[in-house]
Amino acid sequence: MRDTCLPPYAVSAATETAGPLHLLSRMPRGRLLSRLPGFALVLTLAACAAPPVESPTTRASSAAIDLPLNDPTAGITASVPRAGLPGNTQLAQDFLELSFALESGRALPRFTRFEGPVSISLSGRVPPTAPQELARLVSRLQREAGLAVTTQPGNANHINVEFLPKREMQAQVPNAACFVVPNVTDWADYRKSRRSTRADWAALTTRQTATVFVPADSTPQEVRDCLHEEISQALGPLNDLYRLPDTVWNDDNFHTVLTRFDMTILRATYAPELHSGMSQPEVMAALPRVLARINPAGGAVGHLREDPTPHAYVTAVEGALGARSNAGRRQASAKEAVQIAAGQGWTDTRAGFAWFALGRLSMKDNPSTALRAFLNAGAIYRATPGAGIQAAHVDMQLAAFALGSGRAQDAIALVNRSLSAALEGENAALMATLYMIRAESYEALGQAALARQARLDSANWARYGFGSDAAVRARAAEVAALAQAGARLN
Q1: pTM (two decimals)
Q2: Residue 64 forms part of a structural domain
């Protein structure tokens, strides 16, 4: 399921009979509601759509923070390496881990998929943007993954996307921003069967029907994000992996639209060599031929090297993001996740996300710790191919620090570095926030014309990302408050 407001967003979903794990443990397999708090004055920023405005708190402690940007242009143009497809040995390992487990860690006894063409339809209180977003997604699935999917009715296999009021949905599944369930046709059917094996992914022998549930009152961006993650997981992998940098199937929720990696996994899922009911050894035996055809540059499949994520790390991340713990316990959980990552010797997105979570949880009470955590997360992400959107989120946090500390030129440099990744990731909320920071920074430097242009640029993205004029104004007010705090320090 898709989480509601994590570093970047929400969750994806596939329903299991087990209870929710938070942040991204996927209850019914879907986007979850994230629980990382925002920075005093700002910063849930790009994390949530339309977050509540927080009461301003003092930022005096940040005045002493020395952002390591003494030369604002030094290193700022460095780009994150673009992601290519991994070699076929790694791709085979990723495919197996994504396809033979649920997010809770439960193993799946057999491979399943839809056998034959799939019709995808919308029902309920359909938002005005949803039909166009679904059409774009289906076109991409046809073109990039070669899937036999359509918005036309008539196929025996069917995915329904039902929109219902957020309050009604979250009364039943409180941690999910959206989710997908097998073998149910609508919300009433889900409520009747939610605790039965009929709605259990592990009990399937093949897929024929699934329903995605999305709040009708979501922002346009969240509607799109839910369609991408939940429909793709209805069609393909049911697991999420913290170690993968370039996919929507990662509980960190940074990527919000399907990537090249995702389309490749979906293409492999529907390869003619595979079919529902195959065991993991049978799928493994077929993968070398499948991957040689769809990723010829990836080489032969060699010995697979597992790199499991210890349950202790998942538990620590869930503790950091859990809504029921107090701030101190959540920070302690984030620190534990950082320590586990260090003990494992990780330099991948698991380590980056642990540092990012610690940064987000430390912003209000310990800005120096938050800054150090963001710098560590950023260094990891900037060295990781495919982690450009993650690095952009870190840069947004650092730009907010710079603006609130009276260092407008540094804030502009950080915004400039992150814009292309935010654009490539199609993250309108992040784009709008970055332009708001740029506008306030130019205003602080007395460059009124550039500030006006940045506000216009922000407006082009803000309504799609935040959903309403009130939410846009609230976000702009938060950023303006940072600028005012920075001005008082100069």
Answers
A1: 0.88
A2: no
